Amino acid sequence: MNNPASSAAMPHNPPGETISAAGIDPLELSNKQPDWSASRPVTVAQKRTVLALLSVLLLAAALAPLKTACLLIAFCTIFYTVSALYKFAVIRASISPAAILSFSDRQIAAQEPRRWPVYSILVPMYKEPETLSQMVTALRDLDYPDDKKDVQFLLEEDDASTLEAARAMTLPPEFRVTVIPHSFPRTKPKACNIGLHLARGEYLVIYDAEDLPEKDQLKKAVMAFEDSAEDVVCVQSRLNYYNSGHNIITRWFTAEYSAWFDLQLPGLAALGAVIPLGGTSNH
After folding, report:
1. Which one of 70, 88, 198, 274 is least enclosed by Cβ atoms within 10 Å?
2. What local confidence, expressed as pLDDT, does residue 63 receive?
C-alpha cells in the first residue's frame, strides 16, 4: 500500500480527468508473485491430499460401511461441538477493550494541526450510474483535506451508461475516472489491481458504489495504523446497513452484519486469529 512517490506533492488533476489504463497488466501480481495471489485457489498438494482422503474414505466404506458411517458421524459431532465452543470463545473475546480500534471526536480534534498523508480511494463500479452522484457527494464530504484525497472511479470501458454519467458531472480536481480495458478476468479485483497501480497515496481504501462512509473514517484509519504494530497492513471498517428499517430483508441483513462485525470479527482480532476481509471499506 505504500507508494514511494506519495511523499511528494500530489499534482492536481483537471476536473473530470479520464485516464486510460491500457497497457497495465491486471495479472501482474499473479505472474511475478504467484504465492501472493489468489489466482490459483487450490494448489497441487491440496488436490492430491483431497484425492487421497477421498480414496481412503471410499475404500473404508466398501470394506466396512457401518463402522465408516459411525466414524463419520463421530467426526462431524466432534467438529460441530468444537466449532460451537470456539464461536462462544470468539463472542466472549469480542467484549475485550482491545478488540476494536475506536477514536472519539476529541481524540481526532486533538490531532490538529497536522499533516495528513495522501489517501487513495478506489471505487470500482459496473453499470451503476444511479449511484455515482451519491458516491461523489459522500467522498466530497469526507472530513479529510481535499488536496490529500486521490479518488479513482474504476469504470469498465464497455460500461457506457456509467462512463457517460461520470463525464456529465463536474468532478472535483482530486477525482479522476480510470477506464478499465476489456480483459479477463472480468472482476472487481482486476479493476482494483489497475487502480492500485495508478494510486498516488501512502494509504488506500476500497469502497463500493453504494457505500456511505462516515465522514471521519479516513482520519480514524490513519490513527489506527499509527497506533498499531508495524506489521499491521490492513484495517477493516465496521459495516452495517443505513436503511435497516426499510423492509424485512434489510432488517435481516442488519442483524447478520451486526453479529459479524460486532461479535465475530472483533473476537477474532482479540484472539489473534486470521481475519477474513469483506469487499469494501478495507484500508
Report:
1. 274
2. 95
